[in-house]
Amino acid sequence: MYPSPKPFCYCRQADASTKTQLHTHDYIELGYVVKGAFHQKILQKDTTFTEGDLWLIDKNCLHQDYLTDKNTVILFLGIANDMFTEIINDSNTTQKIVSFLQTALLKQKDLQQYLHFKDNTGRLELEGCLIHLLNEMVDSNPGTQFIRKGLLIRIFSIISTKYDFALSKEQRKTMNWIVFEEISHYIQQHYSTITIQELSSVFHFQEDYFNRLIKSKTGLTYSAYVQQLRLNKAEQLLLHTDKSIEEIASIVGYQNRGFFYKIFANKHHMTPSEFRKSSV
């Protein structure tokens, strides 16, 4: 059936005992459980997907599909590799997370990857896009190819921000470092005004996640990590500029001069003025 001269859509009924042969694809498979539960054997491992779950299977990844309930409803989308790359690059995900997806699914050929996603807050929005996409594939009206690509971009944006990865232990370690690097870079760029609510809005994680992640990588809480960045910048300004201490406190994010003096003295056992004089 693939490659096809044009996108197509079809529906098939299957018995509860239906089982495919072990097989591979030369395209990316996106699967979604609309209703019930679905089972696959992927890389010799039995995996169960429940209602609302998605999966992405890389090309050449050996797998087998089987049904245990005739009322189960599954949606399969076959996505050409070049289209998948375009979609991922256009999605609203941070670049390093995009790189992780590309590496996991496209570049580690020998590992033949798959990814399992579980809904967090995006199911209704996702299903609306999937229904719209299926209608576009059935109707094939003028301009539909652009609409289909736009919908796929939207679908992957939802998956990357409102679904949770089910990763292997090694994949999760890699992903945690990628996310930490992205978050810490963002904090360093916005250290003077950053809030944990802003991080949650930008990266789409719960607020307590940032404390856990930063603590695991630096040994510091989120607040202590931001304070360390601010004090490091204050030290540089004290040593290398003629700005007043009040100006420096404001630049690094402290409008309360007394509080700035207190945390600075706690770290250096001297006031900012004494710190500046001691370096002369």
CATH architecture of the largest domain: Sandwich
Which word captures the global form? elongated
Largest sheet: 5 strands, antiparallel
| Gyration radius from CA atoms, angstroms | 25 Å
Oligomer classification: single chain
Mean pLDDT: 83
CATH topology of the largest domain: Jelly Rolls
Q: What percent strand?
A: 15-25%
Integer count of domains: 2
Strand order of the largest sheet: 6-1-4-7-8
Descriptive account of the structure:
The chain is of the alpha+beta class and 280 residues long. It has 2 domains: 28-166, Jelly Rolls (Sandwich), CATH 2.60.120; 169-280, Arc Repressor Mutant, subunit A (Orthogonal Bundle), CATH 1.10.10.60. The protein is built from 11 helices and 8 strands. A 5-stranded antiparallel β-sheet has the order 6-1-4-7-8. The longest helix has 21 residues, at 169-189. It is elongated, with a radius of gyration of 25 Å.
Layout of helices and strands:
Layout: E1 28-35, E2 37-42, E3 45-50, E4 54-57, E5 63-66, E6 73-79, H1 81-90, H2 95-107, E7 114-119, H3 123-139, H4 144-162, E8 163-166, H5 169-189, H6 196-203, H7 207-218, H8 222-240, H9 245-251, H10 257-268, H11 272-278
Antiparallel strand pairs: 1-4, 1-6, 2-3, 2-5, 4-7, 7-8
Helix pairs in contact: 1-2, 1-4, 2-5, 3-4
